[in-house]
Design brief:
This protein has 1099 residues and is mainly α. It is built from 62 helices and no strands.
Length: 1099
């Protein structure tokens, strides 16, 4: 077996290596087909290349499983034949994902999948990959989707369109216009990105505009000049005769420029009455006129014989004569066509002079700069003509002359002799400029010369004078920015990289690119440099350089660098040493320098340890995790963290399963890092590995991290489950089963996990929300000693608007445990009160609300009745909590007033009956009477709404004020008869509380009060008096506003009705009762002396 390759440069070694491969293939030499890490890289690479040439499938698959990415990449790069049909038994998802991928590194897996996606052409096999991955890794499956057959794509697109990445979705538009139609159908009411599909105008213009015509203006894309021009060429009538739809979305000038002359009059007549559009086309008419006038000159140019000098001269004369009448666009269009058709270098003197006169006219157009392409084309033709005809060229023109790719077009009309003459002149001129210009401009002229060599296909080796001047410029350069410009030029030409290698060393002395170029062109230059230690070994390409040394110069340069790095190990350690060492040597180095628990290690030793810890992951094959952990404990962990992370990321599934057998011995941070890696690698058998870790780890924080990551894996399906019919059902179920297992196996000391259960609910997929709620509730009950069973925010508070997803019996049990059993011992905060009301109002249907009331709310009230008089620290908490619950239920029911429901108060009616049947109305008058007023008013609203449907602009309180006044009088009179005259004081508070909660404006309140006074005239004198007293107090009522009183703000005039209040008080003043007049006197005193009415004693 060959261990070294003959040749001095890298290219020579490559050639000789390829000869060895072909010789081995031709001789049918038998190898020991195994990757031996103790052999040289050349020996192993030779095995790989021979196996790829002979299509030894078994060995190639074994190479894929090896731990050195050099050999794996080589096998993949030369293994494109694997996608051929005869190897379909290997390149299929079933075999790859079950038999091969568990044994290969992550990087190798990604490279192989990319090879297959780029080279597999059979749509059926690609669809097989898609179908296989769709149920396990949807994100990976989407990468295969664009390469499936058109029929398959269209059949699956509607279901998968929401989860397709945008860049893949827009690629589908290239395949079929039907894909774009499906996209528009699905997203018709959402944010369309039609501008991404404007290219479809070229192939499906009519169908594309059929869709755009149906879209609202907010979805119509902006047509820039390019697409306006395209639309005007393909289907101009779609823009012209639907102009009002597109006028704000197209480039008007471009639209006018390309409008069809024969249909302009028709277009003009259609929009003649639109004043807004007339301004657009004032210039448009002139444009059309210019086009008509200039059309003949373009037609004349098209029919002109370019070899007929007389005809060409006459055409130029006509063009010059009418020059002032032509538009600028027409002038440039004519010149471009003229230069393309005619060979100006063969013009006689007369024709040439006429051409120059036209050129002078064009240069007077100040709107266009000298860098304009047409101007430059004319300038190039002028310079070339004068060079060929040996005329004197003004330096002013030469300084404006541009060295760019347009020279390649200009030279096509020159003969070989003329090309040589022009090239020599331009080269001489550029060299002259380099000599006499400033140092800063010298770099610019070097670049001009480089462009000249490139576009005229000339070799710099044939012009040594140029190379001499470049070397001189390099020697004179001192500005670093000029170095950067030369670096850009240096890498654009292979010959320059070789010929100016020494100069490149000056420009980039520490660049890995420089050293790689030395290997390619002159490896002898590396010997003096390695002694100066100028190699920046931490650069990204440094690893490439050292790997090349190890592969092709292992016995020469590689050995010299290795020896040198050994001597510098304790002074300036280099990553190159780790790459150049063999596997045995590297393991010995790492073990020899491993940190110990002793504290007397010298500074140099610690420096080496830190350097090894930082860069040991750059070595292939990857080191065992046990060896890297040796450096985790002895030095600060941050230094070894990146190496451990890289090694864990590179592991195959089988390697990870073998590695975690000793997981319990790892430090906590390494265990957590391992968890992150597992969740970031989709190809792992994640659940199997995590279960092993779950059982082995001794850290609660690691188990908490597993649970958190698993929960996030389930939560990612929340936003997309409604947009996909079937893709995610299986995956959601599998994720939930795994999460359920974790929840069932929580330890008693893991309350940290349990405490976070509530925060996950709203992020879960809907189909598993109820199951998670039940499971978390059961677990929370078992953690009574560790978890707060009555927290400030109960578990159900986090459900938000998702209570309808939870089973109602489960909700009832949770409310019973968390609230009902503590109703008389703990004051409920707003979070607990919100939970109770949410259990009722989450369901909008009356029947569902009634079921919720019977199962959840009614048991809570029944328990409260039992403990109604129970005192805790001299406070009847049951009464306080029930009063707050009823108030909140009553208040929240006002949302029905803003909805389209029929204002049915069924639940409140049942609640009122419950309160009246179980409590003393006299002792609990306020809570019961306020609720009764609300219930009766809801009945009035419901009845009125059944007769006349109210809209959002209707003041329903004004419409029902008479019925409400009658209801208030009836209830008040009944209460006076039962509880006595003094009940008006409590009724006043109950009624005013109810009006405030319904947000009834003062104007409407005063209207109701007047109607109540009208109705009181039919009552007995005593009741009439009581009603007037009640209305009097209600009229004087002012809502307390702490912030307004504190800062002295004025009250909102729109909320008050001073005139209505004054009229109502005047009406009360005329009452014949002296008692009523006394109350009126109190009102006068209150207004005069700014005294609140409660400062007076009741009579």
């Amino acid at each position: 077996m060959c261990t070294t390759i003959q040749g001095e440069t890298q290219g020579q070694k490559h050639k000789n290596f390829n000869k060895l491969v072909l010789k081995a293939v031709g001789n049918k030499k038998v190898f020991n087909y195994t990757i031996d890490y103790e052999d040289t890289d050349i020996e192993n690479l030779l095995k790989v290349d021979v196996a790829c040439h002979t299509r030894n499938v078994d060995f190639v698959l074994e190479v894929f499983k090896c731990e050195d990415i050099l050999f794996v990449s080589r096998a993949i790069r030369h293994g494109t034949w694997l996608v051929e049909p005869e190897y379909a038994h290997v390149i299929n998802p079933q075999y790859l994902y079950s038999q091969l991928f568990p044994y290969i590194m992550s990087e190798a897996r990604n490279k192989l999948l990319l090879l297959i996606r780029l080279n597999l052409r059979d749509p059926k096999r690609i669809e097989y990959f898609f179908n296989y991955l769709e149920k396990t890794d949807t994100n990976a499956a989407m990468k295969w989707f664009p390469k499936c057959s058109i029929q398959f794509i269209l059949s699956r697109l509607h279901n998968n369109i929401h989860i397709l990445p945008e860049h893949i979705l827009f690629r589908l538009f290239f395949h079929s216009f039907e894909a774009f139609k499906i996209y528009c159908d699905v997203f018709c009411k959402k944010s369309l990105k039609v501008h991404k599909a404007l290219f479809l105008i070229k192939s499906n213009g009519e169908e594309f505009f059929d869709i755009l015509d149906q879209l609202g203006t907010e979805h119509i894309p902006i047509f820039n000049k390019k697409f306006t021009k395209l639309a005007m060429k393909v289907c101009p009538h779609r823009l012209m005769f639907n102009f009002h739809h597109y006028q704000n979305h197209i480039d008007i000038q471009c639209f006018i420029k390309y409008i069809k002359l024969e249909r302009f009059e028709e277009f003009q007549s259609k929009y003649s009455n639109n004043e807004k559009l007339i301004s657009y086309f004032l210039k448009g008419r002139q444009n059309v006129q210019n086009l008509c006038e200039g059309k003949y000159i373009l037609d004349a140019l098209g029919s002109c014989d370019p070899n007929n000098k007389v005809e060409v001269t006459n055409l130029l004369i006509i063009f010059k004569k009418n020059f002032s009448q032509f538009s600028k666009d027409l002038i440039f269009k004519f010149i471009n066509k003229f230069l393309s058709k005619c060979n100006v270098y063969q013009f006689n003197r007369v024709t040439w002079n006429m051409y120059i006169d036209v050129f002078k006219e064009i240069m007077n157009i100040k709107q266009y700069s000298e860098k304009n392409k047409t101007n430059q084309s004319i300038m190039q033709s002028t310079v070339f003509y004068e060079i060929i005809h040996n005329e004197i060229i003004s330096e002013d023109i030469m300084m404006k002359f541009q060295f760019d790719n347009s020279l390649r077009v200009a030279r096509k009309k020159l003969s070989n002799k003329e090309i040589q003459i022009v090239f020599n002149f331009l080269l001489t001129f550029a060299l002259l400029q380099i000599k006499k210009t400033t140092q800063q401009n010298k770099v610019i002229w070097i670049e001009n010369m480089f462009v000249l060599f490139k576009v005229w296909n000339r070799s710099m080796q044939e012009y040594p004078l140029f190379n001499i001047e470049v070397v001189k410029v390099l020697q004179e350069l001192q500005n670093r920015s000029d170095y950067e410009k030369l670096k850009y030029l240096y890498y654009k030409n292979r010959f320059w990289r070789r010929y100016l290698l020494n100069e490149n060393i000056v420009i980039e002395p520490n660049s890995s690119n420089t050293f790689i170029n030395m290997l390619k062109h002159n490896p002898r230059l590396l010997v003096p440099f390695q002694k100066k230690n100028v190699i920046n070994s931490e650069k990204k390409l440094a690893a490439v350089f050292y790997r090349k040394l190890r592969t092709y110069w292992s016995d020469s340069l590689g050995q010299q660098f290795k020896d040198f790095f050994y001597t510098m190990l304790h002074q300036s350690p280099s990553v190159g040493l780790y790459i150049l060492l063999s596997r045995i040597e590297l393991h010995h180095l790492i073990q020899h320098n491993a940190p110990t628990n002793k504290h007397n290690e010298n500074v140099n030793g610690i420096t080496v340890q830190i350097h090894i810890a930082r860069y040991m992951h750059k070595v292939y094959p990857k080191l065992p995790i046990k060896m890297t952990l040796m450096y985790y404990k002895g030095i600060p962990m941050i230094h070894a963290f990146s190496s451990i992370n890289s090694i864990l990321h590179g592991m195959s599934t089988c390697q990870m399963e073998e590695t975690i057998e000793c997981f319990d011995t790892w430090p906590e941070q390494v265990q957590k890092l391992c968890i992150w890696v597992i969740f970031s690698q989709p190809h792992y058998d994640k659940r199997k590995i995590l279960l092993t870790i779950w059982q082995k780890t001794n850290y609660s924080s690691i188990r908490a991290e597993i649970f958190k990551k698993s929960m996030r894996s389930l939560c990612i399906y929340k936003d997309i489950e409604l947009n996909v019919k079937y893709n995610y059902i299986v995956m959601i179920s599998e994720e939930w089963q795994f999460l359920q297992f974790l929840m069932d196996n929580l330890r008693k000391d893991e309350s940290l996990i349990v405490d976070k259960f509530p925060s996950y609910f709203q992020r879960l997929p809907r189909m598993k929300a109820s199951d998670f709620c039940l499971k978390s509730y059961q677990i929370t009950k078992n953690f009574t000693s560790q978890c707060k069973i009555f927290p400030r925010k109960p578990l159900m508070h986090y459900f938000g608007g998702g209570l309808h997803l939870v089973d109602i019996d489960l909700l009832a049990a949770m409310v019973n445990d968390i609230i009902t059993r503590r109703l008389w011992t703990t004051k409920m905060n707003n979070h607990h009160l919100d939970v109770v009301t949410s259990c009722l109002y989450t369901w909008k249907d009356d029947a569902e609300q009634m079921v919720s009331f019977r199962k959840i709310i009614a048991p809570l009230f029944e328990k409260a009745y039992e403990k109604w008089d129970t005192k805790i620290v001299n406070c009847k908490l049951a009464q306080l909590n029930i009063n707050n619950i009823v108030t909140l239920l009553n208040k929240q029911y006002q949302s029905y007033l803003d909805s389209k429901s029929n204002f049915s108060p069924s639940v409140l009616t049942v609640l009122l009956e419950s309160l009246e049947n179980n409590l003393s109305v006299k002792e609990n008058y306020m809570i019961i009477r306020s609720l009764k007023l609300a219930v009766e008013y809801f009945k009035i609203l419901s009845k009125a709404n059944a007769i006349v449907k109210f809209d959002e602009n209707t003041n329903i309180f004004d419409q029902t004020s008479l019925s409400f006044a009658e209801m208030c009088i009836n209830i008040f009179c009944d209460d006076v008869a039962i509880y006595g005259n003094s009940i008006w004081r409590l009724f006043y508070h109950a009624l005013q509380d109810m009006l405030d909660r319904f947000d009834v404006k003062k104007h409407t309140q005063y209207k109701i009060y007047n109607l109540m006074l009208d109705l009181s005239s039919e009552l007995t004198p005593e009741l009439n008096y009581q009603v007037h007293v009640l209305i009097f107090e209600l009229t004087l009522y002012k809502a307390d506003n702490f912030m307004h009183n504190l800062f002295g703000y004025d009250s909102d005039d729109s909320e008050n009705d001073d005139e209505g209040q004054e009229n109502l008080l005047t009406r009360i003043k005329t009452h014949h009762s002296n008692k009523v007049k006394a109350y009126h006197s109190k009102c006068v005193l209150s207004n005069l002396y700014d005294l609140h009415y409660d400062k007076f004693k009741y009579v």
